[in-house]
Design a protein that fits this description.
Chain lengths: ~350, ~350, ~350, ~350
């Protein structure tokens, strides 16, 4: 481990800085014989791509995935899938002002101290550009576990919350608006609010809810690789994430056992699902659902005091093109990470019984 | 990976079912030359042990740790530390009624389906008895990273919350009461409430807050082994945990960037600390703090409908001795897991620079 | 990794010094539903045990394996199998003379330098006592891959070689003599020679050949976990091993391609098998065979000059009870390591195709 | 693990087939602050490259390494180093005749059976082209452990052996001839023999000896990651390797303990070095030396009978441009793998003592 690999059997290893020549990765362990829908992969990339609407950053990146190995005549061969995404829109000069200045609530300071140096162009390795790699891994994972439905959506922006449970939402409508919220009324409010925040040169946080349906029973490897523990780790790997809860989550901590227990139906399903589809770290076949908290983007278009690498106070103002609210673009990233976790456990689970 | 190892260089691998002959584990990677305070380890075991007060389960377990290797004349040798904890209080007959019945919101059903069978005595591998192993690993980790202070405490039980920030609490008072809440007024309310819940044959959830002070800068391995992502995974490994948030957490998702950013002082510390001591997955030297949500214990002393392994409806009522609220005993477990994560990153970080 | 785990899905992690209270380990990843023949496991332990005949060390160790978890009513549960072997015959005083003296060609010097200290009692972690743990892992692996036959035997002692190819030997006769050589004429010579060497207070090396029959096609994970590369690593892990070759081995390096190539029969088997049952790191269904070289045991009953930990010259003579030739007792160890490699790849291979 | 990663802290993960668009890899764990000599890396690539002399294949590959990340202004940043090598000389048509025919002693059959399909163009993933990736990793490893000298050379071709011990050779002369043998007289004989073999349309095997000098004490992680066990695994990963021995190797198996033991000098060095610089899996500071056996290349320019994927007998003759003897080109590959093993243990060893 040096922190750039994710998964055990279905494993993604990545490289890349935001302003290097390219980012990319290697997907190991995808079984042979999977006929890939390359267009569907590229479509996931489009969902994550900057510049899709007025409420996201206007940087233009093509984000075309180039596959270099592991696929022969459209089908996986069982050998590692190498892929690459060019950094076509680097504009390094945009970032020269960051050379010796630590941006507040960014990773400039910590990378500098940990490694004794840093690639200061646009966040380098700490940039969310890296998540484009994850979407590639997730898109292939989705095709491997194609019977499982993984659907994420924006469930809050600032203090605007979707106040319906996911069962009352039509998740197929998530892509109908720029915010990626399937509840149209909420979506409108969110969009208006984000535009307003953007005009202020400010940013705002939000949450994403992810629902996993048609789950097989048995995925997850207790005691340290419980399904929800790996889902949690994967979500907390995403830039700007501050919290993760599944099933009843933090609300569950206020409940009584007699309220919280999910009683069984005769077919092994449960009448309620406060457990969130997981018992003892293993999927029980019910829907898995979890919620992820994203802090507001740290780069704001307002003046901020800070220090340079010598500890001298200075001032700075965000430049470049940044998202006023990251959650709409993070929806496909959440799905990608969840899909990779599921694909990995799906393969590992094949070794559970003789 | 088969899910029973935790960590990369400082690594704990465990075995054991609640009603087998013993549980135990192997700690790899503890550097040579650490003179161990065995009494301090045993003291941590006492903190987790059942039967310490009237608000926790009255099962009696000695939980004495027997070290079998890796320590010579009181000092670690750099070789793996094998240890064992006997299961002295097995009372298997207490659990015979579980043989073919799936307890609601327990792991009986999922283990049965995943493995085609299960050790039905008291939860088997899914029992929280396993966490005794983790406390051993954590107690040694604490001694390895002895300059770092790891302090957890109960921050809520049901709807009773400690309403002060941790900075206003005297964390040395945590052990002064049975609830392990350093705020005495809250502790009293919590204790009364738990007794009441117990009398009802019910259980209740709660949260634990953990504060890590005197942190070195530079721990954490982006992009997939970010410090908070591994902390999150470790906490979500603990039985009954439903959520994890660090720094501003879920509240941060409602804030604006201009409110949320932590501005620097000239010495590299920050004026605020909504980031929770971690930027880009790497510690920045400020306090780390996070909150963990525990659901109410599933075993209640009330009658519940359920099914047996053939899908026939039946009724059951909890027997044996169970905790009405798990958070007081989970405090040392939270600390142990956090300490192991820190010890692992502390060792890995030695390879960051040439 | 800290060097004490072996395998990926079928994984053994061990602990223990030769003169601690016990040695033991944890076997992760053994699938659920395997009904174990405990007697067969104990029988493998007997094969490795000291004191079986006059040509091996006369130390008495019971080497009884105590299983602590992972087995319920005789069947594996899919959870980790913890086990322990007591060190009943420690006699620490036998080794006190080693405290500050570095025995030639032992690991005293290197452990001392690497870790800054060492457990000097009988080799500590570097003792071949550790291999008792491996025999437990291997005995369970053998039962998991029960259709595959793994048979090792002594193929040379000093300059006495079995001069027949393995196909002409009756491998069921290996256990008929103390040397574990299925060729009776050679066995007799070897036994006489070892007795003579022992009388001289000296030791001698030898080789073990291992044959794996009834192999499934497809085991092995190129490019870094080729089947023969893992077999080689596993053999080189065994104390005193200096070399590994498979198929044509070092002889193959003198051959021409036209002589060495294995031509196919119509059923996919090959007419010759200089490849040793592996092509490109993957088993092809033919017999796997390999040869392992063991150096002579370093502890001799003769006077040797050496130095103490301060660099002062001194003299020493081996005490205690040691093997004059290690290969007879290493036969079950070779089989055990091979069986664990196969079991691991057998499980991993389940994820090769969709 | 899916077999495409090598190492723990200093870790190489690779992708690529011989006739895909590119091969490449990711090097994780190279510490920050290493100023790379890119030219030296490219020079190692030239050493491995086909077409360097008349006794190696005349395929032309540029093998220029393109670095994509992890290096900023010439210095490593501590983030993963992504790199790529284009396949400029693919000529896929050369291999179309292999589509349904299994080449004898190649991996066509085993890949087909394991994965249910294969990329039949030139060996796909099983091609030695992959080793170009390893040379990149090794070249960077060499710069990380720059005080350690890693020198390999051809020590035999067919039955022509260098009959001097390595101490009597001037290893700086290895590159003076096409065979990469520092003993000029032997080199001449080898070269003549290889030309002769080539004219016959045949191939021949050989051995490479590798010597590691100026070793620090303490590298290697017993009991399963002994230094020689990892060196062995790494060598057995190289295409066509059939055997590995270190120190006294297979000869040592014929010796007595009184002959084999390495007695100490007062400074901790040893008078002899039959141990090959490693005791108990840990380097002792003496020279490490080992020998690797390569079988003859399987592709010969002679007619051979074989079968197609339906089991029908057919005939085939090698086409394309292949090496008559692989050892000269394998010299830099042996060095690269050894260097990566050493770099990994060098970093891991930093965590050995408190």
């Amino acid at each position: 481990m040096a922190g750039n690999s994710f998964g055990t059997l279905f494993k993604l290893t990545t490289y890349g800085e935001s302003h290097g020549e390219a980012i990319g990765g290697i997907i190991e362990g995808c079984p042979a014989g999977l006929t890939l829908d390359i267009e569907a992969i590229q479509k996931e990339m489009q969902r994550r791509k900057p510049g899709q609407s007025k409420i996201v950053t206007q940087r233009k990146e093509e984000d075309e995935v180039l596959f270099l190995s592991g696929i022969f005549e459209g089908t996986t061969t069982g050998t590692p899938i190498g892929f690459q995404i060019k950094n076509t829109n680097q504009k390094s000069k945009d970032y020269s002002h960051n050379k010796s200045v630590y941006r507040p609530s960014h990773a400039d300071f910590t990378y500098d101290k940990k490694f004794g140096m840093r690639d200061y162009r646009g966040g380098g390795r700490s940039s969310a550009r890296e998540t484009a790699n994850w979407v590639v891994g997730g898109a292939i994972a989705k095709q491997l576990i194609k019977d499982i439905q993984v659907n994420a959506f924006v469930s809050s922006v600032g203090s605007i919350f979707v106040d319906k449970p996911y069962q009352e939402l039509d998740l197929s409508k998530t892509e109908n608006n720029a915010v990626r919220c399937p509840d149209e009324a909420s979506a409108k409010k969110m969009e208006t609010f984000i535009k307003q925040i953007k005009k202020q040169g400010d940013t705002v946080g939000g949450t994403i809810t992810c629902v996993i349906q048609n789950m097989p029973i048995g995925l997850g490897e207790p005691v340290f690789d419980k399904l929800h523990a790996r889902l949690g780790q994967s979500m907390l790997s995403i830039n700007a994430v501050k919290g993760f809860e599944y099933g009843s989550g933090f609300c569950g901590a206020q409940m009584k056992g007699s309220e919280h227990n999910d009683l069984f139906n005769e077919d092994g399903t449960t009448k309620s699902n406060l457990s969130g589809g997981i018992q003892g770290g293993i999927s029980n076949g019910m829907d898995i659902y979890f919620r992820v908290a994203f802090k507001p983007v740290a780069t704001i278009m307002k003046n901020q005091t800070t220090i340079d690498s010598n500890g001298n106070p200075t001032e700075m103002q965000g430049k470049g093109r940044h998202d006023p609210c990251v959650v709409p673009r993070a929806v496909p990233i959440v799905e990608a990470m969840a899909a990779m976790v599921l694909a990995d456990f799906y393969l590992i689970n094949r070794a559970s019984k003789i």
